[in-house]
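Justification of computing resources. Each target in the renewal requires a structure prediction run like the one illustrated here; the chain below, 322 residues long, is used simply to show the kind of job we budget for.
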Amino acid sequence: IAAAPRILEGKKAVIYGRPFDSSSIPAPNLNEDFIYKRTGARIQYRPITDLKPMLAGVSEDSARKEMERWKKEAVKVTEAADQAILDASRLYVLLRSIVDKEGLSLISIDCLSFSFSANPVLPYPCLSFTRLRDDGFAAPCEADVCAGLSSMVLQEISQKPAYFCNVSSVDEKKSSAVLRHCVAPLKLMGRDKPQLPYNLRDYHGLGGVTPEVQFPMGIEVTMGGFNKDLSNFTLWPGRTISRIKDTDRPSFENAPPAYAKMRRYCSNHLEVTVKDMGRFLQSIAGCHHVMVAGSYPDEIRKAMMRMNVDLVTPSDLGAPGV
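Resulting structure tokens:
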């Protein structure tokens, strides 16, 4: 196993933002060489400002075709304006062209550097990241390099798109965690499976557009992620148990000043039951986590062994494959 090629060997990634200095999840202890030596993946950073002039060159017909697809396939469109959907579609066409031209496995943008601005420098990338994941590429939010590498691993193993999310709250009595984010894949069950129903909503009530996905209930899922120095990988099995309704979502009435402009939380909310909640909370690397449908303990164990990465699991999972 250890002599086999690493699962990310030769993979290429481009992140638009300051090198290893995401606005929300900086990684100052990492660099390109360290990531390559550990994982085999090549990371390159570029300025966000590179993208804006490139948007002008996107075919209007291609952008409108993508916009109409989003609207046609949605269960309903609420709050999101046509112009926001068109702008988001234009960004997807551009990012997909970059991925195809350069043979990338991952692309990301430091979106929180402009998301809450009165005049964002780019369209919100939520629809772009959703579609890119469904297309088979890793598209982590917020230029989170560790969660991006985690997405690459889990998507490569499962051959399914990942739900990159915040572990935003837990219920210790139920041993469950609520996972939230504004981006969720439509092809969660597999790229050859029917896509999940979705609504189109605006981004936190601020404009833009995000997909609100109707997750399937009662399915096995795998949650996982590298820690911040890539020395270990947390593997946690779970099962989806409920969607969170609008009426159950917390209010922003007493929110901190940083969230004063937001009118609601992320569009996608999913509750997952897990074993050994205490160990789960102690083991996850931060608020961001990655989830895919299905169970892959043996495959993940082998992938981590090839990278000399320790595996952290629930106490009763044991050593997968042994």
